[in-house]
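testing teh design pipeline on a random one, pls ignore if ur not involved
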């Protein structure tokens, strides 16, 4: 019964849902707008709620996450002409249309409504940590400065916002996200090389476990979104995994029983699609 009270727009603290589900839903809506004729632009507002969870719900209780979702329920109803996505206290509002002026007007109207909801629920939006961004395939609009206001303050624009640990970019081509994954993966490879000395160090089983636990999850975060990227970008991740084979004890993929990342993406994608189907049409 409680689950029926939590809106479908809320992806946080729900069984079978994750940050990736929310990011994928958002990225798909942007890509769909890009594919429309004429091409639609998307302006998004990522709103920061100041310590929302800690302020309204007692910490450490099993039911605290569910209670917070119930407390936030209703926010989606005040949004009338835009899309809203929620993951716990992460709030994103977006609007897609060809005319960016109409998008700005619609977003500003809805931000007034959501601010009223926040005040009624003793929530505080932090306009200095909230920002807006535009997603478009029109390169002449890459430097557009949307006039979006929250609590009377003009929001700053970000060209590569981080949303639920996934780095977005203007065309949703995942270039910034790939750069972050490869950088983080290579840093963690240093640990692998450190514990695999020639004359001492961990055995191959320990090295494999270290790689699969600390490095591979980094490279695969968000594959549901970035797997449609160019092969050139995907190869960057493959090179990080293959560089493990150049460590002193040579963790060769075959010997270590490690699948190529491309095969893992295919297998995991099939499982992910099956999961989405089990959740219903909305997801």
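output:
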């Amino acid at each position: 019964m409680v689950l029926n009270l939590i809106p479908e727009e809320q992806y946080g603290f729900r069984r079978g849902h994750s940050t990736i589900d929310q990011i994928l839903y958002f990225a798909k809506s942007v890509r769909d707008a890009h594919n429309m004729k004429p091409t639609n632009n998307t302006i998004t507002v990522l709103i920061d709620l100041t310590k929302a969870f800690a302020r309204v719900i007692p910490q450490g209780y099993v039911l605290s996450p569910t209670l917070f979702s119930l407390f936030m329920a209703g926010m989606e109803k005040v949004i009338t002409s835009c899309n809203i996505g929620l993951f716990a206290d992460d709030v994103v509002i977006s609007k897609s249309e060809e005319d960016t002026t109409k998008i700005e007007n619609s977003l500003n109207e809805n931000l007034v409504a959501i601010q009223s909801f926040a005040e009624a629920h003793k929530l505080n939006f932090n306009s200095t940590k909230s920002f807006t961004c535009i997603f478009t395939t029109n390169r002449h609009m890459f430097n557009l400065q949307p006039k979006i206001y929250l609590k009377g303050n003009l929001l700053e624009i970000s060209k590569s916002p981080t949303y639920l640990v996934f780095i977005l970019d203007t065309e949703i081509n995942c270039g910034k996200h790939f750069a972050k994954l490869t950088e983080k993966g290579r840093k963690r490879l240093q640990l692998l090389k450190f514990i695999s000395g020639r004359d001492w160090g961990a055995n191959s089983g320990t090295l494999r476990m270290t790689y699969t636990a600390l490095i591979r999850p980094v490279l695969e975060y968000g594959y549901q979104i970035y797997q449609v990227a160019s092969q050139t970008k995907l190869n960057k991740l493959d090179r990080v995994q293959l560089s493990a084979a150049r460590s002193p004890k040579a963790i060769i993929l075959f010997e270590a029983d490690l699948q190529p990342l491309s095969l893992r993406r295919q297998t995991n994608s099939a499982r992910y699609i099956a999961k989405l189907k089990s959740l219903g049409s909305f997801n």
